[in-house]
Every structure is written in structure tokens, then in C-alpha cells.
Amino acid sequence: MNSVHCALMFTIADHLEIRNDHLIIGNVDTISLAEEFETPLYVTNESRVIKNFSAYREAFPEADIYYAAKANGSFAILRILARQGAGADVFSYGELYMALLAGIPREKILFNGNSKTNFELEKAVELSVKVSVDSLDELHTLSNLAHEAGKNVEIAFRVNPDVSPKTHPKISTGLRSSKFGIPSDEVVSAYNEAAGLPGITPAGIHCHIGSQILETTSFNEAAHKMMDLVEKVTKIGIDLKFVDMGSGLGIPYTKDEGHAPTPKDHAKAIVPVFKEKTKELGISPKLILEPGRYIVADTTILLTRVNTMKKASKNFVGVDAGFNLLVRPTMYDSYHYAVVANKAASFAQETYTIVGPICETGDIFAKDRLLPHIEKGDIIALLDAGAYGFSMSSQYNGRPRCAEVLVNDGKADIIRTREDIQDLMGRQVLPSRLM
Ligand SMILES: *Cc1c(COP(=O)(O)O)cnc(C)c1O
């Protein structure tokens, strides 16, 4: 075994293996998957989803874990997590509908969002789920809707704790300047106002400081700020039943970011602060966490076939997936490990830049990577594609979305069929004068 091989063995997640030079996921050969289901293809390993969820549940044994559905809203994944006892953080009526249909109980759902429609608020009232309220304006709308329906809604305020985690600016959500939440210094008066409104029960408090965070000090800082607010809110007579600390734990995409914090490290940054303050105040709210990325990111690979090779300013590899299927590298400058899935243990000898087929300069998956010799027809696996991958996909450039497969210990099942041209025409209608 050469050193490059060792490096690869070390860097891929432990639910991936290499056998006969092929990349294996969930005991299934990725090359057979590419042949059977065609490419591009998202492949998710069920046991890895369960393992990641269990890691959170074990790190926070007394908390409820609400999976952030936006990270990967595929129905099979929601179903797997529902069976594991997950709750859900939903950000739209669509996510709410699917979470309920997947079997997540309404008592374990929080409806988030900074700009909900009246229809969405009506649905939250009708379906009796908790609502995270992002503004006083929304509070009044919700109060009116609940009152008219003769119902009572449990709410939390989304608090902007003003912490600044080290992450990409597009996914930092708890800065003072962010669009999310109510500024810390207006929180107490917001609870006062909520307490006097019909149809509203102020029952919780909520924050979420960002995503892909790989240090725990900002979680700790946010926990302190949140628990100070819990104290203030409790002292004006609000009976808090839950404290939702959001999420944001990242995963080590580049594999060289040193020790990436685990759910246990996340818990160490939050739980003692939570316990100390609740004990001091003599209250016993439920702690809630809302991990998305950590649960699904490393469970899934995107398989894509090499269409064409070109030596120009760089050594370009043109593949059949584009940023319409995985937008993270284009949108967040993010790194995804690339493996030549049919030459997974071969000697890495050339530097390649892997690009998609879309008519945009930014359609690049991987820049200047040292990989085994690549030829037309090879299959490339982009790793850690389970979070904000398919869920952010589009049909841009007239490209039907790809299929998704779920593997589990040697078995592979389709969980989303490939779109076709009919799906592109979809709901388009020609006015009669254009017939
Ligand atoms: C996106 C989001 C999450 C999940 O964040 P991850 O970084 O994927 O863990 C949790 N809570 C809220 C409110 C969110 O918007």
C-alpha cells in the first residue's frame, strides 16, 4: 500500500471502504450503483444517518433532538429519523407537512422562519405545532389568527444573541446585523407583550447562531447569553417549558481541520451552562438542539460520470453533475473530497480540476486535486454531500434533477426517481395566443 492510498484510507469516513479499487458505501459497490441507477446519483447510507443521530442523542441524553429538515428533506430520511425519535425544525409549510407525514409527532416540531406567510401561520395554529416567532409584527399576526381559530399557540422568540462564530458569512445567522431574530435587548419586552396577547402562550426561547461551526466557544458564548435571557424572562413571570439552542456543529469537509468537535464537545459547551442556570432559578425547561448538517452531511455521496477531459489552463475533468445538484462549492466556496470511485486505491499522480456542465464559470466542484489518472467514463464520488446537497438542487440550465438511492448493509433502494423532460415542462403553460 503506498502512502497516497494510506492518506485516502485515513481521510474517508469510516462507513466508506475500498475493495478491488472500488469505493464501497453501506456494503454496496458504487460502480454497480452507477450502472444500475445511472449518474448523477445521490447515495445515502442509512446506518450512518442512525449513527450520527444516536451520537447527538447520547451526547445530550436529557434533551430533545429536532432534526433541521432543510439540511436534507428527503422523505425516507425524515422517516428514518422519525423512527429514531427525532423531532423536527421546519422552516416552511412544505417541511412541516413532510415531517408530520413521516411520523414526527407534532409536539416535537418547531416552526421556524423569519418571513412566514399568513397561510403558514394558520397551518401552524391548525396543526398545533410550536412556533418560533421572529418579530413583534409576526407575534400580533399569529395572535389574531390563533384567537380567531379559538386556539392557543405555544411560542418561542427567536433571539439574536449577537455572537460571531468563525464560519462562512453566508451561514452566520446570529450576528447583530443578521436578518434573524429579535435583538437581545428587546427580548424581555417582547415576552411581556406576548404574555398579554390572546391565543399566545410564551413557552420557550430559541436561538441559532450559524452553520458549519468547528469551534465550540461560540456555542458556549451563545449559551451564556441565552441563559441570561432565560433568567430575565423567568423573573418577569414567564414559565419557560423549553430552551432551544439551535445548532450549527460543522463537519470536517477538508479532513485536515484538526480535531473537529463532536456532539459531546457541543454538549460540554452548552449543558453545564444550561444546568447551572436552571438549577439556580429552580426551573426545569426542556433543552432542545436542532442539528441538521451533522446528522446527514457525511452519510451521502454524489456519484458523477466523467463526460470529457480537456488540458487547457488547467487539467479539466468535465462531469455529468453540475451545481444544480450540489451548489455548495459554488455558493459557499466549500470543499468536497473527491474520490475516483473505480480507481479508489490507485496511485494519485495527476492534478485535476473537476467541473460541471453548466454554463457558468463558477460551476466547479474541486480545484487542483491530486488524483489517480482519470479517463472518460470514470466515476467520481463527491463525499459529504448529504447536507444542503439535494435539498438545494434546481433544474437550472434545463437539467432534470437526479435520483437518490438509500443503501443499507448491501441493499440499495431508490428513494427518489430521476426527473425527466416532462418534469422540466412540468407546470408551464402556453397562453393561447402563442399556440
Ligand atoms: C439551518 C438551521 C438549523 C440547522 O443548522 P445546521 O448547521 O445544519 O446544523 C437549525 N436551526 C435553525 C433555526 C436553522 O435555520
Describe the structure.
- 47% of the residues are buried.
- The radius of gyration is 23 Å and the shape is globular.
- The strands form 3 sheets. Strands 4, 14, 15, 16, 17, 18, 19, 20 and 21 form a 9-stranded mixed beta sheet that branches.
- The protein is α/β, with parallel strands linked by helices and 435 residues long.
- Mean pLDDT is 94; it is low at 1-7.
- The chain has helices at 3-11, 30-37, 46-59, 75-83, 93-101, 118-126, 136-148, 187-195, 217-235, 263-281, 293-296, 328-332, 421-425, and strands at 16-19, 22-25, 28-29, 41-45, 64-68, 87-90, 109-111, 130-133, 153-160, 182-183, 200-206, 242-244, 286-289, 300-311, 315-319, 338-340, 350-355, 364-371, 379-382, 403-408, 411-416.
- The termini are far apart.
- The protein contains 13 helices and 21 strands.
- Strand 8, helix 7 and strand 9 (153-160) form a beta-alpha-beta unit.
- The structure holds pyridoxal-5'-phosphate.
Q: Helix/strand/pairing class, anyone?
A: alpha/beta
Bound small-molecule species: pyridoxal-5'-phosphate
Number of helical runs? 13
Largest sheet: 9 strands, mixed
Range of helix content? 25-40%
List low-confidence stretches.
1-7
The overall average pLDDT, rounded, is 94
The share of residues in extended strands comes to 15-25%
**Net shape:** globular
Q: How many distinct beta strands?
A: 21
Distance N to C terminus: 65 Å
**Cα-based radius of gyration, to the nearest Å:** 23 Å
